[in-house]
Amino acid sequence: MILKNELSPEKRKAIAGYVTKILVLGADFVCSLIAFLLALLIASKFNLADAQSMIGRAVLLLLVLRAAAFMFFKTHRLILRFIGERDFWNVFLAITASSALFWLLLHLYPSRIPPQEVLPVIIIDYLILLGMAISARILLRLILNQHKQQRNGRRNTAIFGAGEMGNMLLRVLQHNGSHDYRIVAFFDDNPKVHRKSLNGIEVFNPGEDFAKAIRKYGIKVAIIGINQLSEERRIEFIQACLEHKVQVLKVPPTEDWLNNSLNIGQLRDIRFEDLLNRPPIKLDEAGIKQSVHNKVVLVTGCAGSIGSEIIRQLLRYQPRLIIGLDQAETPLAEIGLALHHHVDNNLFLPILGDVKDYEYMHYLFEQYQPNYVFHAAAYKHVPVMERFPAEAVKVNVMGTQNIAGLSSRFNVEKFVMISTDKVVKPSNVMGASKRIAEIYIQSLNNHPNNNTQFITTRFGNVLGSNGSVIPIFKQQIENRQPVTVTDPNVTRFFMTIPEACQLVLEAGAMGNGGEIFIFDMGKPVRIVELAERMIQMAGLKPGKDIQIIFTGLRPGEKLNEELLDAEEGLIETHHSKIRKANVRHCNHYEVGKQIGRLIEIASSNEPAQELVKIMKEIVPEFTSQNSDFSALDTPPPHSLPSPSEGNRSDMT
User: Fold this and answer.
1) By CB distance 3.0 to 4.6 Å, which of 88, 371, 459, 590 could disulfide with 295?
2) 3-class DSSP state of 576
């Protein structure tokens, strides 16, 4: 004897399938007998003697016909939890065909009962059996679904949205057993559906009855199931769920659903970027494609979070070749593996190299003749660069000078530099070094012998980038360690990596040279609120399950970042998310002379104080904060033309 536990999963499924078929076929056969007997009683007006006289051999013939029809139309071959219109149609065909054949046989071979007397019985039997067979299937499906819903381990779940999408989501979850969600409630902002039921499930007002519903049903999960939900309302609902320790899932946009169906695997947890008020970015796809299609594109810093995403997005626009340059061996190997298909097809060429190495960079430009350059290579960690200012100058200034100078020399069409909001009134070496790089390419753009369009894009922090607070907080939370925040009042601008790179491509396409494009980053985010939300998203309570500790601002950091200097001003563009700064022009000869001196000191063993002093001369608004270099902040000597002086054309 084979025990149940010894059966393989395949055999168990096969046995379950046979049991279902026998169960359905047996139920149909029993319903056929009951329906015919009821029809006889009804037709004879419940006169048992008359009913008995009408039975004869007719019942046996009818049952044989029913069984044959059920087998022919395969009404028993179904999956109970997925019973649908096609299954009901097969039942209709089987019963209709067998009843019609029964009537025909009685005409051809009349029994002791005239066919016209049996006709009412056949009609009544037909209607009763049709109702019973369909009802039996619905009942079996409900019993099965109820059994699955009561299965141990399922979490009580609410759907936000009692409309078409919410109803579709409910059906998917009810028909799919490979999940642990038990739908117990709906939330909807529409007052017309409050206190009503959708498929037997109560609909609550999320504004007034949110906490009540959570307590009543012990809701652990909420799934957002609304098509047209505003960003503000979505964020508000997510935050309400997090405050009540309810996990939030979201479904993909309906255009991503395949054949109007949703897989359970497409449900995913919200991430912090889902809490940013970010309407979708509309791109000038045609303009971007025109700018890079069939071109050779060089991306420096290609293994970083921004550089790698730029490459992935560029590939959509069919450039002839993308050259990816990075000095980090392991990340470069990883992106090469991730894009191996494009590497194999000679669309992407990863190259190990350092932007500081002018001779090697010259070789690359000479060898591949790039038409377009995205310069993302940079050192960006504020506290680290505060300790090693010479390295910041070598990479962020000299590296930019090398790539920009070679771009101009080899007549690259466009050079797009990735800058940062930390260049505005810089308080640290990193921000000042990037500002000097901005000044250099702006001055080079106006050089009379230059034919390259130099463009700067400036934005704040990107979520998920290397060194971002998000992975740091996530690791601390996973390890149940205190989350460290520098100051309770510190704020930062945030943007997702794909958003930032989309706008970089758009700005590059629209730029004509000399612009500083500033991206709309939305409202600044308080870092302590970010930490609280991430703790709540992990199902924990800030201050109770995980503490938040304030460590103080690090060297070079300031409380609030800015995207624009007060002297720069703003100019609108055709894109709602991109604006231009009024550029303060500088003399390329003077800038080149000062940067040459800066790089010379950075390459020597001069004290860091001397190097930073020169940086402050080039960028007069550079005021160190929380840094050893604060002592250098005396009124700087006049070094570069003022904005008013810069309006005079004195470029050489």
Assistant:
1) 371
2) coil
Per run of 10 residues, the mean pLDDT along the chain (length 652 residues) is: 50 62 80 83 65 62 83 75 74 87 76 62 85 82 62 77 84 72 89 86 89 90 82 83 84 58 63 64 77 94 92 93 95 93 93 96 96 94 92 96 96 94 90 94 90 89 71 85 89 80 87 84 81 81 88 80 61 75 79 92 88 92 87 61 35 28
Residue 520: other Cβ atoms inside 10 A: 17
Residues 6+ apart with CB under 8 A from 209: none
pLDDT of residue 295: 95
* pTM for the whole structure: 0.66
Instruction: Tell me the CA distances in angstroms from 122 to 96, 102, 125, 401, one per residue in order.
Output: 11, 8, 5, 94
Provide the pLDDT for residue 385: 93
The domain locations on the chain are: 8-149, 155-270, 285-461+494-522+560-645
Q: Give the number of other CB atoms < 10 A from CB of residue 45.
A: 8
Q: Which two tokens stand for residue 572?
A: 């609108």
Of 283, 250, 239, 154, the C-alpha closest to 577 is 283
Fold of 155-270: Rossmann fold (3.40.50)
The pLDDT value recorded for residue 109 is 66
* DSSP labels, 280-304: PPP--HHHHHHHHTT-EEEEETTTS
Please provide the distance, in angstroms rounded to a whole number, between the alpha carbons at the two ends of the chain: 98
pLDDT computed for residue 646 by the predictor: 36
Report strand pairing: 247-250 vs 483-485. unpaired
Rg value, the chain, Cα: 36
Query: 276-310: buried (b, 16+ CB within 10 Å) or exposed (e) per residue?
Result: bebeebebeeeebbebbeebbbbbbbbbbbbbbbb
d(CA 72, CA 90): 10
Q: In 3-state terms, what secondary structure has residue 136?
A: helix
> Where does 410-510 show beta strands of DSSP type E?
414-418, 453-458, 461-463, 483-485, 491-492, 494-496
Q: How far is CA 139 from CA 67, 135, 183, in A?
A: 21, 6, 19
CB burial readout 195-222, b (16+ within 10 A) else e: eeebeebbbbbbeebbeebbeebebbbb
Of residues 383, 439, 403, 415, the one with CA closest to residue 557: 383
Residues in contact with 518: Cβ distance below 8 Å, sequence separation at least 6, in sequence order: 458, 459, 563, 564, 570, 578, 579, 580, 581
What CATH number should be reported for the domain whose range is 285-461+494-522+560-645? 3.40.50.720
285-461+494-522+560-645 matches 155-270 in CATH topology: yes
